[in-house]
Design brief:
Order of helices and strands: EEEEHEHEHEHEEEEH
Radius of gyration: 19 Å
Number of helices: 5
Number of strands: 11
Distance between the termini: 67 Å
Helix content: 10-25%
Strand order of the largest sheet: 7-6-5-10-11
Shape: globular
Strand content: 25-35%
Length: 217
């Protein structure tokens, strides 16, 4: 209890730091299964409204079952490294990755569908305006707003005292082959809660291309 000039007292919580389940920050291993979750996305509809979209639930299986996909995950839309290098690198390498036996390339962040679309537009990605589409023509942006996929991958990171982000995804990239992790590149070798540095050395597009080429030989 703390006294104030007016004589009233206020209770200050001993801690407001988010406590994460240790399993949420224990990365899935190669050959492990990816989590089955539902993403809340926005799909384009036929409408003259300035916001011609409606909600659509998309599951992990919709994205990954029966496919070989590349996914890269990052701390947040509109943040510096994510915007200047991470997403642009994969967008530029999209066609080459597809030629190396990849069905689709996804970018995931713990942001909602509205933020992810506006970030994609700001990045200059070409939007797929076909009725029924819910994304962009090349790299597809996945909104993991409730952090469910990130937790299931064991890639949850808390950046509350360091950046004020709260719970986000640690930076990583992976190849997911029919719902299983074929290969994963985790920055820093593992997750550091409230990390000062934001490492970006192994989850980049060039490293992923090197791996895909090695498997294509």
């Amino acid at each position: 209890m703390a006294s104030t000039a007016s004589g009233f007292t206020a209770t200050t919580p001993t801690s407001l730091v988010t406590k994460l389940d240790p399993a949420w920050s224990t990365p899935v291993e190669e050959e492990g299964d990816v989590p089955v979750v539902t993403f809340k996305t926005r799909v384009r509809i036929e409408s003259e409204d300035e916001n011609p979209f409606d909600w659509k639930d998309v599951s992990s299986e919709d994205y990954f079952k029966g496919k070989r996909a590349v996914i890269f995950s990052l701390p947040g839309a509109f943040t510096p490294t994510c915007s200047s290098t991470h997403l642009p690198g994969y967008e530029a390498a999209y066609e080459e990755m597809k030629s190396l036996g990849v069905d689709e390339v996804y970018c995931l962040s713990v942001n909602d569908a509205f933020v992810m679309r506006q970030w994609g537009l700001k990045q200059g990605l070409t939007e797929d305006k076909t009725v029924g589409a819910n994304g962009f023509e090349k790299v597809k942006l996945i909104p993991d707003g409730a952090c469910q996929f990130t937790r299931g991958m064991g890639m949850s990171c808390n950046w509350d005292t360091e950046r004020g982000f709260g719970e986000r995804s640690w930076r990583y990239s992976a190849v997911i082959n029919d719902m299983k992790v074929e290969k994963i590149f985790i920055e820093g070798g593992g997750i550091t809660q409230n990390s000062g540095p934001d490492p970006f050395e192994v989850s980049d597009a060039d490293t992923m291309l090197e791996y895909l080429k090695s498997k294509d030989d």
